[in-house]
Amino acid sequence: MADFFSNSSENFDLGSSSVGGTDKLKADEIQKVIMMEQQKAQLNAQIQEISEMCWEKCVDKPSAKLGSKTEVCLSNCVKRFFDSSIIIATRFNQLIQRSNSG
What we know:
The longest helix is centred in the middle third of the chain and has 42 residues, at 17-58. Mean pLDDT is 79; it is low at 1-17. The protein has 3 helices and no strands. Helices cover 84% and strands 0% of the residues. The chain is elongated. α1 (2-11) packs antiparallel against α2 and α2 (17-58) runs antiparallel to α3 (68-101). By secondary structure, it is mainly alpha-helical.
């Protein structure tokens, strides 16, 4: 996909170097947006996976009320989820800063 965007401004030449440069900037912006959306999709997939894992681990059988053991398990699972989310968000921020600076 990077090849598609890196070549798009070269293939779209209106005879002006400033127009070609603008197209290159737009292609770079589109590529960054796509990368961000892919990262969001990965994060959402991880959230879904963690939710399913907590449910499977903590809830033996659905009922009208949560037992104290189930409640404690879900609480701990959610806390670990938040811890994981912070680590993932920090990592994404590092990736974004690297892509913006380079």
